[in-house]
Amino acid sequence: MPAEPAGALEVSDLHAGYGRTQILDGVSFTIPAGGRLALLGRNGVGKTTTLATLVGQTTRHGGSIRLGGVELGGLSSSARAAAGLGYVPQTRDIFKSLTVEENLGAGLKGRPRRALEEAYELFPRLGERRRNGGGELSGGEQQMLSVARALLGRPTALLLDEPLEGLAPVVCDTLMAALSRLEMTVLLVEQQVDRALDFADRVVFLDRGRVVHSGPAGTAKADAALLERHLGVALAK
Ligand SMILES: Nc1ncnc2c1ncn2[C@@H]1O[C@H](COP(=O)(O)OP(=O)(O)OP(=O)(O)O)[C@@H](O)[C@H]1O
Questions:
Q1: pLDDT at 2 over 80
Q2: ipTM field
Q3: CA-atom Rg of the chain in angstroms
Q4: Where are the domains of the chain?
Q5: Which atom of ligand 1 is the closest one to the Cα of 209?
Q6: Which CATH superfamily is domain 1-84+157-170+184-237 in?
Q7: Buried b (16+ CB within 10 A) or exposed e, 217-232
Q8: Mutate to test the pocket of ligand 1, among 25, 47, 193 (most ligand atoms within 8 A of CB)
Q9: Mean pLDDT of all residues in the chain?
Q10: Are 147 and 94 in contact, with CB atoms under 8 Å apart?
Q11: What is the pTM of this model?
């Protein structure tokens, strides 16, 4: 039996990239079960590659990925999902030709159809649009659908890649409020640094495929010099 609680995510000395090209150069971080980590950094430093590596969509050259004490590194993407890893990619991979309800059905993974109500409780807007095609949804609704579908698989850890991209501020508020109600481990990549740091309890900054800082999110948010150094931005006060 694994000694770690379900949802504890331990990433250790991860080296990975695309084919022979190495992008991640020894990335390590730990998220305790139920913890929330923001993974931040400038464009192109390897944030998306980190998430893609955790779900098995890149070439891993070395290092380990443990979820609830179980090593995922050698498993297929679908086996990692079955082990509890949920993933909402930047591309919002919904089926545009299927209805909202059909899209959600694809996330049930054998659970009874009544479980769909969980999605409609989290995002009432999806309930109102359950008969609409995925391609008819606004950007915000598509993102809600993508998140809701991942959650229906009952992951113990959820990986979110820039969920707020392209969304109006009021839609960002709705989505972040829903995410804040989740009780699971969350790894969040997000360009809206202030929102990410408000959501997370800890933060890791990446630069050129390496972890260059990790610490409490609240401390980072108050440290303008740190943010400037690792992101090249100063948060508006
Ligand atoms: N499919 C791919 N094949 C080869 N190289 C890739 C591929 N995807 C990304 N890269 C390269 O990997 C590096 C890291 O990219 P990645 O998308 O992980 O960065 P990121 O930190 O998520 O950036 P952004 O904030 O712009 O999304 C970049 O140099 C990028 O060009």
A1: no
A2: 0.95
A3: 17
A4: 1-84+157-170+184-237, 94-154
A5: 14
A6: P-loop containing nucleotide triphosphate hydrolases (3.40.50.300)
A7: beebbeeeebbeebbe
A8: 47
A9: 93
A10: no
A11: 0.93
